[in-house]
Fold this sequence. Notes:
By secondary structure, the chain is of the alpha+beta class. The protein has one domain. It contains six helices and seven strands. A three-stranded antiparallel sheet has the order 3-4-5, covered by helices on one side. It has a two-stranded antiparallel sheet with strand order 1-2. Strands 6-7 form a two-stranded antiparallel sheet. The longest helix has 9 residues, at 10-18. The N and C termini lie far apart (36 Å).
Amino acid sequence: MKQLPGMPTVSVARAQLAGLKVAAVGSMAGYSREKFPHWVSQGAKCDTREIVLERDGTGVTKDAECKAVSGSWISRYDHLAFTSAAKMDIDHTVPLANAWRSGASTWTTEQRKAFANDLTHPQLVAVSATSNRAKGDQSPDQWAPPAKDYWCAYAESGPPSKPPTSSRSPTRRRPSWPTCSPPARPDPTHGGSRQPLRKPEQFGAGWSV
């Protein structure tokens, strides 16, 4: 399975996890997915979804409108195999609603758009529709992929995928997953915690706080 972009090394992931800070969860008042414009144009008639489908697939061919018409995909969350792009969802590792509760309600539309279409960090992954719907807007203390051999990568992709804001990041308890080394995965029964954030400039042009 292909490596996601921007995945941290083990040492970096541990350092980020060790830096988690506890903070209260924000309100969902005013939230809607439409406030996070996603699957925007990436040029050459391709949108964000099509870019991720090509990146995560094998032997992907596209039509004149950049739509994937053939190829094969393996869902990272449950290892189900597909040969139809229509059966794949593109999941936000950090759910949009989770980001909203953690400060995205105060961002500009441009900031939310950049977060929802981030192709430089492990924020977008091609997965089965069933696993994506099962996850919903749950954080790792509430949900983990059925594929246990992906638990470590799922946890490690969290800290660098946090939304850019100077105040807070989504609440996450640090999961103690058996396939991960203990120092990086404390007991999930011990209090909620927040993850460190990327700075806005790490998303490239267009960011301001």
